[in-house]
Amino acid sequence: MNTTPLWSMVEQRRRVSVVVRRMVALALTACALAGFAAPGDSRILFARDTPVPGPVQAFAWRVIETHCNYQQFEREQRSFWAFQTQASRVDGRVVYSINILSDLTWKKSDPPAVIEMTVVDDGAMRLTALKSSFVGCTLYPR
To answer: Where are the domains of the chain?
Structure first.
């Protein structure tokens, strides 16, 4: 015969219910956040239907980090948006043309910078063209 008071069993079930609800909420939050992760550590925002795959997006971000004249704190303050992307096949290689708009969201008096790059993927990704406005970017790393 069970001698545990009824109120103790009810309290125990309530605690288990609270713990289960919290675990489910944490699991759902983790799943939701995983869906918004940027591919390959790229801080460039691409459209959902972009022809540029994740590894090329990550390569484009590394190009901005190493070839453009932004200080680290400047890169952290700016937003980067890929506003025009294109992929084409030339001689068995895939050529990606990526145009990126970079601006300071809190300082609308400054004009946005436009970065234009061409990346060739022939088994190894290579930067073949790089132009920019309002920020110094060179084809060769700094």
So the answer is: 1-37, 39-132
Q: Which residues, 6+ apart, have CB-to-CB distance to 111 below 8 Å?
A: 133, 134
Rounded to whole angstroms, the Cα distance separating 33 from 38 reads 10
pTM: 0.69
Structure confidence by residue, pLDDT tens digits, 54-80: 999 999 999 999 999 988 988 888 999
Q: Which of 12, 18, 8, 137 is nearest to 80 (CA)?
A: 137
- Within 10 angstroms of residue 85's Cβ, the number of other Cβ atoms is 20
140 Cβ neighbours under 8 A, 6+ residues apart: 67
DSSP-based helix, strand, coil % in the chain, nearest 5 = 35, 30, 30
Per-residue pLDDT tens over the stretch 19-45: 556 655 555 555 444 443 444 568 999
- Label residues 60-71 b or e (16+ Cβ within 10 Å = b): bbebbeebbebe
Instruction: Indicate the length of the chain as a whole number.
Output: 142
